[in-house]
Specification:
The chain is 32% helix and 24% strand. By secondary structure, it is an alpha/beta fold. It has a single domain (53-370), classed as TIM Barrel, CATH 3.20.20.140. The strands form 3 sheets. Strands 1, 2, 3, 4, 5, 16, 17, 18 and 19 form a 9-stranded mixed beta sheet that branches. Strands 6-9-10-11-12-13-14-15 form an 8-stranded parallel beta sheet. A two-stranded antiparallel ribbon has the order 7-8. The structure holds N-(aminocarbonyl)-beta-alanine and zinc ion (ZN) (2 copies).
Amino acid sequence: MYDLVIAKGKIVTSTSVTEGDIGINNGKIAALGQNLEGRRVIDARGKLVTPGAVDTHVHLEMPIGKYSSTDDFYDGTRAAVCGGTTSIIDFVEPEDGQSLQDALAERRALADARSVIDYGLHMTIGPGQLDKLDQIPGIMDAGCGSFKLYMAYGLHLRDDQLYKALSAVGEAGGLPVVHAENWDIICALIEENIKKGNTSPHWHPRSRPEEFEAEAAGRVIKIAATAGSRVHIFHVSCPQVVEEISRAKVKGLPVTAETCPQYLLLTQDLYDRDGVEGALPVCSPPLRSDASRRELWQALGSGLFDTISTDHCPFCREEKGADLSAFNRIPGGVPSMEIRFSALYSEGVGKELISESQWVDLCCTTPARLFGLKDKGEITIGRDADLVVFDPHKEWVVTAGELQETAGWTPYEGLKLKGRPVYTISRGDILLDEGEFKAEKGRGCFLKTRTKA
Ligand code: URP
Ligand code: ZN
Ligand code: ZN
């Protein structure tokens, strides 16, 4: 007799689709079989059973300038659960002068108190951390195995600094994750556009051209290769970057890449909406043309991406609209955490652009494997019982008022989706129970990301 049995579902993994039961004991997957008996049985007939989804790029309660992204670790992880996500990776952003260990302890204290699901943390290495590269092996032992390097914003690193950071992370066996854009060109184009009076969000993507996102990705791939490091490219927005990644993969370089729902579902014409509506979808890299969006789907179907995460980083309408005098004053970031798994199923599997197993691989299995979340992302005996029972027939319309996310708006408003989680299970606990959220604040545990090869 198992604590919990998920019975007669279609079990979808990254490599197979089978029918059967999953037996769970003490928070772990204990058996895979037929006619298992449990103290509680979830009837999964007609449903898909997948690993819990893993979102390896989220910014919860992240300070940016005078604002902080809207969802805290409680609201954000509640939204994650309702969307079928059972593990996230957020960020530590150390203050200049703060040790990496102190910054990690501070961020963990916030997350430990609030997160309802298990979480890991990437360590940011900005210009203010370049004198702390010797702390990298120690912080990896403490559980931060991945390191965020920016090529944009105030935190951007010059090429020589990137080389030093990548060398240090590579030598320690860590995984660098990179925001790749050409900051010098972006600054020049922003200045030029604003001087000409081109201040509306329409000019946001036109100041961050696809060519220079690709140039930056190609450049950091070369720098990483010279430094002897792997590199994972975050939030790829367009096919030109895919070309760089694909070229690097063909050469056998250890390069991986992520894209996000916003680049697969939304397009840059949203920036042409009036007033704050045009400001809401501002994010970086920006949304692109419909042609680029379609090509990204093709790349996804061809296996050129490794992960789909969200870069969830929303700000409320008042913050987005606080200063519309120029597009570069709008805080960047959109919410996607709660719709990711459903949207990728509905728009990807439903439209036959990716298979069910690719969906699971991109949203669950490879994210867990890449970041060394050893107990997550797969349905095998002995792993954590992080599972989703997903109704592939459930039709619903995305509307901000019904989401758990707290931004109060969503760029996906009105999107019709088919497929939604009914049960989300984390370490054997049913956190989403027939669509009803039931989880204790702070039950989530810190996950060490073990990225050493
Ligand atoms: O505009 C975005 N994407 N904001 C979040 C921070 C980042 O660049 O990942
Ligand atoms: Zn970024
Ligand atoms: Zn991000």
